[in-house]
Amino acid sequence: MFVRKKSNRSGSISVVIIDKRAGKAHYLKTIGISACPKEIDELSYNNPKPKITVFIIGIVKNLILKAKRQKKLLILNNKIIFTKY
């Protein structure tokens, strides 16, 4: 997952969370939109807000639950390992 600043046609800038799959960017969530550089810095990853952190933690929890259900998860020495089988 990456945090990206994307410019819009209106001149404002959106701060979005993307995920790359098969070499293509897939937008997951828009964190905020602003035309003011100060507000954009507050929204960006350089100054993480709870909104970004909560969203990323939620995605990680969903991945772990999905792997547990499919029995593709090992926990060794407090490390989470995703397996192929």
Q: Per DSSP, what share of the residues sits in E-state strands of 2 or more residues?
A: 35-45%
Low-confidence stretches: none
Strand order of the largest sheet: 1-2-3
N-to-C terminal Cα separation, in Å? 24 Å
The pLDDT mean sits at 77
How many strands, what sense, and barrel or not for the largest sheet?
3 strands, antiparallel
Q: Would you tell me the structural class of the helices and strands?
A: alpha+beta
Query: What is the chain-wise order of helices and strands?
Result: EEEHHEE
Helix content class: 25-40%
Radius of gyration: 16 Å
The coarse silhouette is elongated
The helix tally amounts to 2
Task: Give the count of structural domains.
Answer: 1
Strand elements, count: 5
Report on the architecture of this protein.
By secondary structure, the chain is an alpha+beta fold. It has one domain. It has 2 helices and 5 strands; from the N terminus they run E-E-E-H-H-E-E. The strands form 2 sheets. Strands 1-2-3 form a 3-stranded antiparallel beta sheet. Strands 4-5 form a two-stranded antiparallel sheet. A hairpin with a 2-residue loop joins strand 2 and strand 3 (24-34). The longest helix is centred in the C-terminal third of the chain and has 20 residues, at 50-69. The chain is elongated.
